[in-house]
Amino acid sequence: MKTKLIVLAIVIVSLFAYTKLMARIGSGSPPPDAPPAQQADLIRVYKSERRMVLLKGDVPISTYRISLGQAADAGPKQREGDEKTPEGRYEIDWRNPKSMAHLSLHISYPGPEDRRNAESNGFPPGGNIMIHGLPNGWGLFRQAHRLWDWTDGCIAVTNAEMRDIWARVPDHTPIDILP
Questions:
Q1: What is the number of other CB atoms lying within 10 angstroms of the CB of residue 35?
Q2: Using CA atoms, how far apart are residues 77 and 82, in angstroms rounded to an integer?
Q3: Helix (H) or strand (E) holding 112
Q4: Burial 68-98 (b: 16+ CB within 10 A, else e)
Q5: Cβ–Cβ < 8 Å for 135, 55
Q6: Residue 126 to residue 104: CA distance in whole angstroms
Q7: What are phi and psi of 170, to 5 degrees?
Q8: How far is CA 162 from the centre of its chain?
Q9: What is the DSSP letter of 131?
């Protein structure tokens, strides 16, 4: 029994160290931008369906199955640490090619109303909500990540999908996150 616990502890520490190392190494080079005709002008997320759609005008140009925050079905994000995914209209306001997950696009949460609501209840609103791929070094899991909601409030896709999204979504693209 003692040997099994020692082996389990070694495995856990090794996985933690591997994840930290891969986070420092990064995602590699981001893809080039898609031609303007293939770029989205709106992102729409349907939380209850675990689906994200890129639109050009009213026409869907790509659809992705997604994973969300662990408490995504419990309503919109209300405060830091609640593991909920926000709801409402935001925008992609910056991107991180050296993210701990394979590339990431930042969602402009919290907005002024989110901040007021959280602070009126005595909580910080949280932030750093992203669309991202899998944690660096864990891309081999591909679609298996969709078996459960595992993020802290972000929107997760496979690494290949994240490269496609990165190329098709310019900064300042609006994103509607619906229940």
A1: 9
A2: 7
A3: helix 112-120
A4: bbbebeeebbbbeebbbbbbeebebeebbee
A5: no
A6: 17
A7: -75, 160
A8: 9
A9: E
CA distance 64 to 98: 22
Pull the structure tokens for residue 54. Answer: 């890129």
Residue with tokens 């919109």: 76
- Distance, in Å, from the CA atom of 7 to the CA atom of 172, rounded to the nearest integer, reads 48
Query: Per-residue pLDDT for the chain (179 aa), expressed as one digit of tens each?
Result: 788 777 666 656 545 555 555 555 656 789 999 999 999 999 999 999 999 999 999 999 999 999 999 998 999 999 999 999 999 999 999 999 988 889 999 999 999 999 999 999 999 999 999 999 998 765 556 666 666 898 999 999 999 999 999 999 999 999 999 99
DSSP 12: H
Among 67, 35, 40, smallest CA distance to 55 is for 40
* ∠ Cα 97 102 103 (to 5°): 30
Two tokens, residue 71: 């408490």
C-alpha–C-alpha distance, residues 152 and 136, integer Å: 16
The first and second tokens of residue 155, run together, are 């929107």
Residues 6+ apart with CB under 8 A from 2: none
State the Cα–Cα distance between residues 48 and 54, nearest whole angstrom: 17
For residues 117 and 143, the answer to whether their CB atoms sit within 8 Å is: no
